[in-house]
Amino acid sequence: MRFDIVTIFPGFFTGFMENGILRRALSEGLVEICTHDLREFTHDRHRTVDDRPFGGGEGMVLKPEPLAEAFAAMGILPKSERVSGVSGVGEDSGVSGVSEAKSQQVGEAGRTRVILMSAQGRPFTQAIARELAVLDRVVLVCGRYEGIDERINELYCDEEISIGDYVLSGGELAAAVLIDAAMRLIPGVLGNQASSEYESFGVPDAEIDSDVDGVPRSQHGAGGLLDYPHYTRPAEFGGLKTPEVLLNGDHLQIRKWRRAQQLRKTLTNRPDLLEKAALSKQDLKLLDEIRNSDL
User: Fold this and answer.
1) Same domain, 173 and 107
2) Do residues 32 and 123 share a domain?
3) Within this chain, do residues 15 and 152 fall inside the same structural domain, yes or no?
């Protein structure tokens, strides 16, 4: 999977790519990240990428010309010229012209997506991360100042995404968050791929493969809930003991306890998630018991 990042601060991503799971994914060829310095697509001696907004107001706006040239260099066509909804072709594809590019794109609709990181975008979620993880290419546009000229958004961007209801100095932090969340869902990136199934906002039981080697699973798929609390050695620390149920080896009891903790944590910290969570009749019963016990 390839991520292209359009930014005026390409150096921001250096440390991000040199650590943790992403570093291993890059070294093993599971993920490719290419940064594109927007200033390289300017033609004045000051490498100007911004200008004052029409109509007045505070701040500056990223100009459309450098962004359009950056897209052209990446082989990203305007949306009106794309075939079957495809968002572009890779610069390594060997495509030499628009007509050839279109022929290459036939039957490949939806494999590339151009995203503007924006405070005005739809909220980023684990579900969106799963959508992106199956694509071949994601192009991320990092806004700065007051944002980008809206015509670039209309001409090239498939959607706007926000990582939260707050404003950042630029889209670089948001792009890093999106990349990290999506790439860890790509097969082979995590040491144990099941790790992504049994965590906060994960998939429900119905979407998880059956038990392995006849050993009952000791946890449920999150189904949109938050994760349960985790414990490791030593069994007692700071005067607090690990819950006894986790030490007795009874997978069914552990599974029930963990589900109850998922429901309790979600009810306490993110009750809004319960409205869309995949809850069974047993879950609803546990939820009622939790609510009654907390009265």
Assistant:
1) yes
2) yes
3) yes
Phi, psi of 140 (to 5 degrees): -110, 125
d(CA 211, CA 252): 13
Structural domain harbouring 218:
205-293
Which H helix or E strand runs over 35? strand 32-37
User: Same structural domain for residues 135 and 37?
Assistant: yes
pLDDT tens per residue across span 2-31:
999 999 999 999 999 999 999 999 999 999
- Rama region for 85: left / alpha / beta (φ>0; ψ in -120 to 50; rest): left
**Angstrom distance (rounded) from CA 232 to CA 60:** 51
**Domain harbouring 227, CATH code:** 1.10.1270.20
Task: Write the burial class of residue 219 (CB in 10 Å: 0-12 exposed, 13-18 middle, 19+ buried).
Answer: buried
d(C-alpha 74, C-alpha 139), whole Å: 9
| Token pair listed for 217 | 């699973």
Query: CA 135 to CA 111: how far, in whole Å?
Result: 5
Tally of domains within the chain:
2
Rounded average pLDDT over 149-171 = 97
The predicted structure's pLDDT at residue 96: 40
92 and 143 assigned to the same domain: yes
Read off the pLDDT of residues 251-271 as tens digits, 9 standing for 90 and up. Answer: 999 999 999 999 999 999 999
Whether 161 and 243 share a structural domain: no
pTM of the model: 0.85
- Confidence class for position 39, pLDDT limits 50, 70, 90: very high
Q: How far apart are CA 179 and CA 33, in angstroms?
A: 9
Residue 121 domain-assigned (yes or no): yes
139 located within any domain = yes
The answer to whether residue 265 sits within a structural domain is yes
**Strand stretches in 112-195, DSSP E:** 112-123, 137-142, 159-162
Preceding omega of 234 cis (within 30 degrees of 0): yes
